[in-house]
Specification:
The protein contains four helices and no strands. It is mainly α and 104 residues long. It starts with a helix and ends with a helix.
């Protein structure tokens, strides 16, 4: 169950990271409210997951899920680069998360 909570925390991290783009420097009310809510949920869920998971593993997975999701949404929503080296980097992060899951 802690792994599911941690994954959800990572998804909310993606939500607030992408949300930052839409806040326009925190000048747009509703995107700002949604971004701050996603931040709170992300950190709250991370805290719950840390009750059972090791800190280093949980934090690495949380940031990894956030990094992967944010990078992929950057590609899909904002037309960011899809060159091979970038995609290889994302794949290595996925591999790192899988290794941490297997080691815990």
């Amino acid at each position: 169950m802690a792994w599911i909570v941690l994954f959800l925390a990572g998804l909310f991290e993606v939500g607030w990271a992408v949300g930052l783009k839409y806040t326009d420097g925190f000048t747009r009310l509703w995107p700002t409210v949604a971004t701050v809510a996603a931040m709170a949920l992300s950190l709250g869920l991370l805290g719950l997951a840390l009750k059972t998971l090791p800190l280093g593993t949980a934090y690495a997975v949380w940031t990894g899920v956030g990094t992967i999701g944010t990078a992929l949404l950057g590609i899909l929503l904002f037309g960011e680069s899809t060159d091979a080296i970038r995609l290889a980097g994302i794949a290595m992060i996925v591999g790192g998360i899988a290794a941490l899951k297997l080691a815990t």
